[in-house]
Amino acid sequence: MKVVIPLAGKGTRLRPHTYATPKPLLRVGSRPVMSYILDDLLDLGVEEAVFITGYLKEHIEDYIRTEYPALTSHFVEQKVQDGTAGAVKLAESYIDQDLLIIFVDTLFDADLSVVRQLPETDAGVIWAKEVEDYQRFGVIVTDGEGYMRQIVEKPQDPISKLANIGLYYIRDWELLFNGIDEVLGSTLGPGGEYYLTDAFQYMIDHGARIRTLEVEGWYDCGKPETLLETNRHLLETGRARRPDGGDRSRVHDPVRIEPGVTLSEAEVGPNVTMEEGSRVKRSRIRDVIMGRDVVVEDCDLHDCLIGDRAVLRGVRGSVSVAADSEVLGSAER
Fold first, then answer.
1. Which of 3, 194, 241, 309 could make an S-S bridge to 83, C-beta 3.0–4.6 Å?
2. What's the rounded mean pLDDT across residues 173-181?
3. Nearest CA among 8, 5, 11, 76 for reference residue 35
4. What is this structure's pTM?
5. DSSP assignment of 208-242, as one string?
6. Cα(280)–Cα(288) distance, rounded to whole angstroms?
7. pLDDT of 57-115, one tens digit each?
């Protein structure tokens, strides 16, 4: 089985952090978002992956080659941002067997090994998660046996609450690429893009059976507020790490505080990650993702993303601070 991972997006909702770092390499639970998915793929026995790159592609390529040398990796640049169907089309020359397609805006709790036990009559799997705010998503309409009938984007009526999460297994890869060709030869969809889900509809219209399976958990990494929510989930389910100590400091779980962090007269947590080399003095921080070598002094911070080597002094409230930036509160100016 091979894997296709589209990564060409600019991550505009996570600016200013994505001006210098591609969204899949932003860290949550002290690790890049995409590392959790790549680890799962290696555990599944995947040996080859095609990465569809674009914005800041050199960072993606360097990271994968350095951290995942055992993975046979191919990189194809999506020079024209024409949608998800166009992105997957770029991988076609590498695909000669069944494949997984994974969009890494989210993390998920799913047993991918179920694809090994699918009936031969199944052409693929589309994973979903039941949500209450179904109007925000593309939802999957199924038949009585749990097979996909169609995907409806942002429905006003509750025809389904199974949200499409961007995780797919396709056994009939030839029919998939026939469908993509059909989509790319048709009229552009909403937003001026060609959608991969229309290729799935083509498969179904031509007799394919795509099973719908629900994931246990689905965690968005595409916006600051949801990145913080995902950070909390990771800390509560195994990524927590207590500090070795601190000078007159208090820590409220869950947190992940890496070795080499210095706390002095600080109150930290809950839901805080701090990476090596960072220093917090006379400050209170909660619901914060903090990078490496950050300096925080005389601050009261909540709901913040703070990039590597940032300096904050006398700041109160919620801020989003890019790497190598300095923010001074009114008392410090």
1. 194
2. 96
3. 5
4. 0.90
5. --EEEEE-SEEEE-SSHHHHHHHHHHHIIIII-B-
6. 12
7. 999 999 999 999 999 999 999 998 888 999 999 999 999 999 999 998 889 888 888 88
Q: What are phi and psi of 93, to 5 degrees?
A: -65, -15
Query: Which one, of 268, 281, 272, 287, lies nearest residue 311 by Cα?
Result: 281
In a domain, 233, yes or no: no
- For the chain, helix (H) and strand (E) counts, in that order, are 6, 26
Kindly report the CATH number assigned to the domain that includes residue 18: 3.90.550.10
CA atoms of 249 and 265, how far apart (whole Å):
5
Residues 88 and 53 in one domain: yes
Please, what is the Cα angle at 28 between 111 and 10, to 5 degrees? Answer: 95
Query: Residue 249: which domain range?
Result: 240-332
DSSP 69: T
For residue 245, give the DSSP letter: -
Separation of first and last alpha carbons in the chain: 58
Report how far Cα 276 is from the mean position of its chain's Cα atoms.
23
